[in-house]
Amino acid sequence: MIEIDDLHKRYGDKTALAGVSFAVKPGEMFGFVGANGAGKTTTMRILMGVLAADSGQVRRDGRPLTFEDRRKFGYMPEERGLYQKMKVSEQVQYFGRLNGMSAAQAAKATADLLERLSLTGRAGDEVGALSLGNQQRVQLAVALVHDPEVLVLDEPFSGLDPIAVDALAEVLVERRTAGVPVLFSSHQLDLVERLCDSVGIISAGRMVASDTVEELRAREGRRLLKVVVRDAAPGWTAGLGGNITEKGDEVLFTDVNGSDQEILRAATKAGTVEHFGWERPTLTEIFREAVA
Ligand SMILES: Nc1ncnc2c1ncn2[C@@H]1O[C@H](COP(=O)(O)OP(=O)(O)OP(=O)(O)O)[C@@H](O)[C@H]1O
What is the CATH number of the domain that holds 272? Predict the structure, then answer.
């Protein structure tokens, strides 16, 4: 288990992190989300030892992370760092070798990854000759080549086309299933919602929510009540509690504060109730609420 415990970080008089804590379990995919400048990259740099925290700790299985631990991590930094003049396949193999693989292991892992990320046809091209999206795929191959024990990826999906998004998602899900803790940041909340078991929402250097996607949605899930009444008597919602938005037969109630049964009785009296239930918010709605 990877634990981020109460990280604080200032850049001069600018506070970047003001107490960031969360944990990523083995076999868990954790989506790290937050507005621009919220502190995601700073947190991941501290996790990877690229940057020192002012206070707080990063632990693996209860003990502080060491250089040796981090060598077994796969990291995709925000500042992409590839040798532009090196050929794609050589580059990925090179990083595999740097991480302790034999030449044969690195060659095999590289060939497999290039295939998965649809880069086989570009294996002999210089990285600098590739489009930005394809360079991003190479960067991912570099982060993944040594079969890391932990994955820390800073916006791995940005700039990828939908096919590459699916290919990367498949690789990450595979690693997660093999027991690897996977942490990635993203602004693509639909993707985070689709892929992640847990989500951390950071705002202005503080964690404002950190839980499983299911828990977050369930917790927020009794905020929006949707009622559809066919052939309702006009004005049937008059005098009922909460904020009310009406659209044809559909009525949405927010901030109902326990008056749901009263609403159900009124709806039943007004006409034929076709739908009565709590709407589960999307991650985007939860995010907007959390950082507001
Ligand atoms: N080297 C630095 N010097 C000064 N301030 C910095 C530095 N790096 C980051 N910051 C500031 O720290 C805060 C957190 O930045 P960080 O890059 O961690 O955010 P982020 O959540 O990754 O943002 P984004 O989604 O835009 O990548 C921001 O206010 C940023 O301006």
Answer: 3.30.70
Q: What is the pTM of this model?
A: 0.84
Ligand 1 proximity of 201 Cβ (cutoff 6 Å): no
Strand order in the sheet with 63-64: 14-24, 2-11, 55-60, 63-64
- 143 C-alpha vs ligand 1 centroid, how far in Å? 22
Asked if residue 34 has its Cβ within 6 Å of ligand 1, the reply is yes
Query: What is the helix (H) or strand (E) element at residue 156, kind and residue range?
Result: none
Instruction: Provide the domain count of the chain.
Output: 2
Per-residue model confidence as pLDDT tens for the chain (292 residues): 999 999 999 999 999 999 999 999 999 999 999 999 999 999 999 999 999 999 999 999 999 999 889 989 999 998 777 889 999 999 999 999 998 899 999 999 999 999 999 999 999 999 999 998 899 999 999 999 999 999 999 999 998 899 989 989 999 999 999 999 999 999 999 999 999 999 999 999 999 989 998 888 877 666 788 999 998 888 899 888 778 888 888 998 887 877 889 999 999 999 999 999 988 888 888 888 788 7
Give the Cα separation of 17 and 258 in Å (integer). Answer: 38
Q: How far is the CA of 62 from the centre of ligand 1 (A)?
A: 28
> What is the maximum span of the chain, computed from C-alpha positions, in angstroms?
77
